[in-house]
Amino acid sequence: MPTVHVRYFASLREALGPQETVQLPEGGTVAGLRAQLCARGGRHAEVLAAGRPVRAAVAQQVCTEDMVLPDGVEVAFFPPVTGG
Amino acid sequence: MAATVARVRVQTLDFDLAAEVAALREGDLGVGAVASFVGTVRERGHPGAGEAVSELELEHYPGMTEKAIEAIIDAASARFQIRDARVVHRVGRLAPGEQIVLVAVSSAHRGQAFQACEFIMDYLKTQAPFWKKETTPSGAHWVDARVADDEALARWGIEAGNAAPGS
What we know:
The complex is a heterodimer.
Chain A: E1 3-8, H1 11-16, E2 19-23, H2 30-38, H3 42-48, E3 55-58, E4 61-62, E5 74-78
Parallel strand pairs in A: 1-5
Antiparallel strand pairs in A: 1-2, 3-4, 3-5
Chain B: E1 8-11, H1 17-25, E2 33-40, E3 55-60, H2 64-79, E4 82-90, E5 92-94, E6 99-107, H3 110-127, E7 130-136, E8 139-142, H4 147-154
Helix pairs in contact in B: 2-3, 3-4
């Protein structure tokens, strides 16, 4: 089973902590990971719920949620960006 | 061009516009124009914001943020005839009036420098992973992404998809 390193930023980091390691089924996608995290309930379900404005990056590149996650990759979830 | 100098820096320290522009131009006599933009912390977040901001805290994604800005400069280089560019973005705690971000672009002629500078800034606002948290008398809150910033990037024919709700 692939293991991925999940990182959170800004409001998601405040709610969930900076990072965690998560095991996924083979062929798991970003959307699958998000759903798996939501299924835990509690704060994960609250801030990662479908429909919430959450962006994802895989290996530090913005990605779409259908991307399949390789073993050991870094996945980040964060809110819309507000720099500049 | 001084290709060994980092084009992108994310730092807590303040920056000096004159020094950055001098470094950008150094050794390149083909430069005929430098356009620069400096963003600063406003006391009032946005029109209609009732409360004064006492502090702005900026968070970033170390590694990804720098790569994202490098990619933005590459996009500007592909689109405009520029010679070099610099982006410095501060993170950490800032007070109203402090400088947040610098974009400087060198080119042979002004038109391309002006356009590339604006393009980089419009792109950065919606694509570089930074997040702002404002502290006001009623507490601290994360700043919402603005549709107007997505619209600014759309003028260049690029869909930002940042402020759009859901995912």
